[in-house]
Design a protein that fits this description.
Shape of chain B: globular
Largest sheet of chain B: 7 strands, parallel
Order of helices and strands of chain A: HHH
Largest interface: A-B, 10 and 10 residues
Structural class of chain B: alpha/beta
Strand order of the largest sheet of chain B: 3-2-1-4-5-6-7
Number of helices of chain A: 3
Radius of gyration of chain A: 12 Å
Oligomer: heterodimer
Shape of chain A: globular
Number of strands of chain B: 7
Order of helices and strands of chain B: EHEEHEHEHHEHHHE
Helix content of chain A: 40-55%
Structural class of chain A: mainly alpha
Distance between the termini of chain B: 31 Å
Helix content of chain B: 40-55%
């Protein structure tokens, strides 16, 4: 069964909610389909990004999607597939359908 | 802390085999791997025949492992190969093979293992370096460079895995009588031992001792460190 973008988005947003539970009020991530994840508009640093991505990998595994989210563009501000919820969902979708 | 899930690379012989035996005796569940079969046979030992430099095979191994155990507590990157030769006489393929086994394999295993270690109460990564790094002996350029890469990797990985409660350290043995040192000329070994504060061969139990120190729950503040045997610095 092919995984849908909606299912991926739900996993990403859930992981962001989990990350927020461990962050103080001033550094909460915006949890929405249009939100930034990594870059100047986000409070997430590179180690925080790693934690979030590992949570997302786990969430994806639970719905039967086994992918490793490694990419050499990870911390590039313009080209990172992890810069926003939208770009991440699209990136995971591509990996899952490979 | 018996009952840990411990993954050790290169358990077919030598230090890796001694480490596996130690953890089995301590009551841990051990997954070992290497290119050849293992002489170890124990109800808590699983051996995977694998080329540790094959990233796809390593990924597959971890996929299978996740189906068997939820959490991994310890990763010991022990697999290693040596090449004692002058730079001018070393084929580039040999240099690649040494780097692939001693560094890239450790990188691959760490990258995969850290995903399974986040749920462990005392997750530990230990890398096997060598006194060849600080001693800078002629004829060991490629081998020492590969271990040097592993040491720098250890120090930076320590920072990257700390947020997940994982420590990452390295132990650098001085000469131990294993297959790895069997091909090194005796005079070379004696010269090397002469540069140690404690001038004798080490034994696998000396490595186990340092590894156990890193693995203790009380060692949660010990990370990014390299400990050499024999008083080499």
């Amino acid at each position: 069964m092919e995984i849908t973008d909606d299912a991926i988005r739900e996993v990403v947003l859930n992981a962001m909610r989990n990350v927020n539970a461990a962050r103080d009020a001033a550094s909460q991530l915006v949890v929405s389909a249009e939100a930034p994840i990594f870059g100047p508009e986000s409070t997430l640093d590179s180690l925080g990004l790693v934690g979030l991505l590992l949570d997302i990998e786990e969430g994806l595994q639970e719905i039967g999607c086994d992918v490793i989210l490694s990419d050499e563009r990870a911390v590039s501000q313009k080209r990172s597939p992890f810069r926003s919820v939208q770009s991440l969902v699209s990136y995971v979708g591509t990996l899952a359908r490979e | 802390m018996p009952g840990r899930h411990v993954l050790i690379t290169g358990t077919s012989r030598g230090i890796g085999e001694a480490l596996a035996e130690h953890h089995l005796a301590a009551g841990d569940c051990v997954v070992g791997c290497g290119r050849s079969k293992s002489a170890l046979s124990h109800e808590r030992y699983l051996h995977v025949e694998i080329d540790v430099t094959d990233a796809t095979a390593v990924q597959g191994m971890f996929r299978d492992l996740k189906k068997r155990v939820k959490t991994l507590d310890v990763l010991i990157n022990n697999a290693g190969v040596a090449s004692m030769n002058a730079i001018a006489l070393t084929p580039v393929e040999t240099a690649r093979r040494v780097m692939e086994t001693n560094f890239i394999a450790a990188f691959n295993f760490t990258r995969e293992a850290m995903r399974m270690m986040r749920g462990s109460p005392a997750a530990r990564i230990v890398n096997l370096s060598s006194v060849a790094v600080p001693l800078r002996l002629e004829g060991e350029a490629v081998y020492a460079a590969s271990k040097s890469a592993l040491e720098t990797f250890t120090r930076i990985a320590a920072r990257e895995v700390a947020p997940f409660g994982i420590t990452c350290n390295a132990v650098g043995p001085c000469p131990i009588k294993t297959k790895l040192t069997a091909g090194v000329p005796d005079q070379k070994i004696q010269d090397l031992i002469a540069r140690q504060a404690v001038r004798r061969w080490a034994v696998p139990a000396d490595v186990v001792n340092v590894v156990e120190f890193f693995l203790r729950p009380e060692s949660s503040m010990i990370t990014g460190q390299v400990v050499y045997l024999g008083g080499v610095s």
